[in-house]
User: What shape does this take?
Amino acid sequence: MIRFTATSKRYPGGYEALSNVNFYIPAGQMAFLTGHSGAGKSTLLKLIALLERPSRGQVFINNQNLARISRRRIPYFRRNIGIIFQDHQLLFDRTVFDNVALPLIIAGQPRGEVDRRVRAALDKVGLLGKEKAYPITLSGGEQQRVGIARAVVNKPPLLLADEPTGNLDPTLSTEIMRIFEDFSQVGVTVLVASHDLALISSLPYRRLTLEQGRLSTDSDPAE
Amino acid sequence: MRRTRHAQHKPRSRPRPARSESRRVGLAGRLKTHLLRHAQVFFYTLGQLSRRPTSLLMTAAVIGIALALPTGLHVVLKNAQQLSGGWDEASQISLFLQRGTADSQARRLVSQLEEHPRIRRVHYLSPEEALAEFQRLSGFGDALDTLEENPLPAVVVVQPRLQRNDPATTEALLDELREDPRVDLARLDVQWVKRLYAIMDILRQGVYVLASLLALAVLLVVGNTIRLAIQNRRDEIVIIKLIGGTDAFIRRPFLYTGFWYGLFGGIIAWLLVSISLWILNGPVQKLAALYQNSFTLTGLNTQTTVGLLISGILLGLVGSWIAVGRHLRDIEPG
Ligand SMILES: Nc1ncnc2c1ncn2[C@@H]1O[C@H](COP(=O)(O)OP(=O)(O)O)[C@@H](O)[C@H]1O
Ligand SMILES: [Mg+2]
Assistant: This one.
């Protein structure tokens, strides 16, 4: 599903955030991306979501070389990726329902379908009944779950999460991780960037570690 | 991904008719959804704007004033043209006959002229009548009485049959009449009409220049307003781009916002021009009455009104299109 081949990313200004990164994550796998702050985790996720382009090497998603995707095609490509951020990136002037419905409306889904899928997504993250609430009235953990519901409402085959538990206490963090595990169970590929080593170590998933832009270890407890 | 996966799983030997039918239904359904979304955004943007009526009103007023100026001038010109049509008819040729022309000779000339195809009306003033009229109009009544001899010649006043808006034919007629041996002096009082036409021509060009400049101003006003709106919604744009919103999707609400600004601007311009005309109509009628003329200002006709509203809407759309095109690319997630 995700393949990096000799991928490097140098930001304008000369800083090399990723150097010669190689790895492959098969479809349906759940994996963690760890490393200190500044190690290049966010940069790696941005390359996958075409928020940045690599300076060298290639990124393949579902066997598609991202270098071949023109600027015009990027929106359609991104509809197949659910992206979750630490700072939830919710629209605070819209209800929970409208926030979660946004990807479906962008994709031009009919109204009935939108209703059905939004409810299903909110149900999955345990927020059914909060549709009419505004994000500002929700707790941090609930807001994060709204973000997750929005990321998965379109049923994307790939889920990316950048520090999804950054501001949450351990209990809430575990809850969030459990939601990701649920998606992984149904065949969604999940890549979670986090520097929360305590949390990651407690879970039996593959772990890619970045150190100053280099992939230092790639450990899979299943093997 | 999902797309390609579906494609891979699609059975290739599926019967054609069923496929095309389901596709047609899908297309109609998608079109319906699409139109519905457009309508939603259309009214959503109106709702957003109406939440801040003052700022909507101020922007629309600026656009309205900018549109009202050339429109008002256009209407004034139209009225002037109508008026000058009346003045046209008033233009006349005065033939001062040779002194000593006998009354009978003069009358023969008059009946000749009355047959002339390019002459509408002829009015004859014998020297006596001319003197009487001069006395009446000049107020030199008593002074003239002391003259031993009438110094005035007989005058034939000729009203040309006018080709609309063409002083040239009248001048040709003048030249022809001047050739007549009985005529001492022929004078056409047409110079001021020509000048009026020249001035109106300049004003008409002026309307175009003014309209172009003010259209540019409207574009800038709308562009700037939309630019601010884009900046205010920067976060939203980033999020929408992040979850796969196309440029067209992001552009849509701003375009509709521009549409509404333009429409309201057009309506305000219409109101401004109509109210101004209404205010002016009283004094104009009074003035016309002084000239024994009944003249009512012609207001905005349907064509001008529709043109005004469409101009406003187009300028709103184009202004926001330019602003969105310029600023949307700058906003990228990451
Ligand atoms: N847009 C950017 N321009 C320049 N340097 C950047 C940019 N984004 C990130 N960096 C740098 O790249 C390095 C890796 O950043 P990042 O990928 O955010 O790391 P992480 O998410 O692991 O903390 C950091 O040193 C950061 O300063
Ligand atoms: Mg980061």
User: Anything to note?
Assistant: Chain A has two domains: 1-80+157-223, 87-155. Chain A touches chain B at residues 46, 49, 51-52, 61-62, 64, 75-80, 83, 89-91, 102-103, 105-111, 150-151, 155-158 (CB under 8 Å). Residues A 41-42, 162 surround magnesium ion (ligand 2) (CB under 6 Å).
